[in-house]
Amino acid sequence: MLRIVANVLPITGGAAGILIRLRIDPWHFQFADRRVFYRVALGFLVSALLLVLAIERARFGAWLVAVRENIAVGAYLRRRDRADALAEADRVARRVGLDRLLQLPAAALTVAGRKRLELARALATAPRLLLLDEVLAGLNPSEIRDVVPVIRAIRDDGVTILMVEHVMQAVMSLCERVHVLAQGRLIAHGTPAEIARDPRVIEAYLGQGAAQRLASGASGHA
Questions:
Q1: Distance CA 202, CA 214 (A)
Q2: What pLDDT, in 10s, does the model give residues 75-113?
Q3: pLDDT at 113
Q4: Out of 20-34, 111-125, 183-197, which region has the weakest mean confidence (pLDDT)?
Q5: CA–CA separation, 191 and 123 (whole Å)
Q6: Residue bearing the bigger pLDDT, 32 or 173
Q7: Which of 77, 78, 53, 79 is nearest to 66 (CA)?
Q8: How far is 214 from 186, CA to CA, in rounded Å?
Q9: What is the residue extent of each domain of the chain?
Q10: Crossing angle, helix 34-59 and helix 67-75, to 10 degrees?
C-alpha cells in the first residue's frame, strides 16, 4: 500500500491519494510540488537500498558501507556538500540511537540496529510525511519497547507518520487514528481505544466468535 502511495508501484484499478492531517499544513497534503513527491518516494526507496547492498557485498567479501554513509544517502537529497550531508547523518544518528555505531559496516548491525538505520536514512531526507512499513517486524518485545519512544519523538517533532504495522503495542501507543484492513478491505477506523473495542477487529484478529466470547466473559465477571 505504501509503495502505491509513494508512486513506486502503479495502481491497476481504482484510485489512490492522500488526505492526511498534517501538523505543519493542517488537513491537506498533496504532491502539487513534484519535489515534495520525490522526497516522499525517495525516502521510502532508500530505506533498504544501501543496506541490502552492504549485506550483498559482505557475502562476497568486498568492502562494506558504513552506517554513517548509509544515513548520508538520504541527506544528499537536500544537501549537495558532502560535509553537510555527513553532519546531518551524525545528527540523525543521535536521534535514533546509532551515534556510537557510525563507523560500523551496516552488515554488522543487529536486526534492531538495521531497523534504526532504515529509519535514520529516511529521516535524513527531512520528510514532512514519513512512511513506515512494518518497521518493528522481527523485533523482540524489549527492542520494540526501545524503538517506540524514538518514533514517538519523531511524531512529536511535527513529522506526520503513516505506518503499516501489526505490532499492536506500537499501534496503540503511537497512533492517533487507526485504519484496520482485513483481506484487503477496510473494516474499521477510529481512535486506538475505539479500535480495541470494535467487534469486527476482534473477530479479524482472534477468529469468529471471539468478540461474543470476550463480551460474555466480561459480563460474567461484572
A1: 9
A2: 988 888 999 999 999 999 999 999 999 999 888 899 999
A3: 93
A4: 20-34
A5: 26
A6: 173
A7: 53
A8: 23
A9: 2-176
A10: 160
Look at residue 64 in the predicted model and tell me its pLDDT.
Answer: 66
Q: Give 188's strand partners.
A: 180
Catalytic residue among 134, 165, 194, 203: 134
Which three-class secondary structure string do you get for 30-56? Answer: CCCCHHHHHHHHHHHHHHHHHHHHHHH
Residue 39 identity (one-letter amino acid): R
The CATH number of the domain covering residues in 2-176: 3.40.50.300
Question: Reduced to 3 states, what is the DSSP secondary structure of residue 167?
Answer: coil
β partners of residue 155: none
- SS3 of residue 166 by DSSP: coil
Of 140, 135, 132, the residue nearest 114 (C-alpha): 135
With a cut of 90, say whether residue 5 has pLDDT above it: no
Nearest Cα to 124, choosing from 162, 158, 95, 81?
95
**For helices 67-75 and 111-123, what crossing angle results, to 10°?**
30
Length of the chain: 222
Quick one: pLDDT at residue 8? 60
Residue 142, all three cell numbers? 524489549
Q: Is 143 a catalytic residue?
A: no
Alpha carbons 153 and 162: distance in angstroms, whole number: 15
CB 54 within 8 A of CB 64: yes
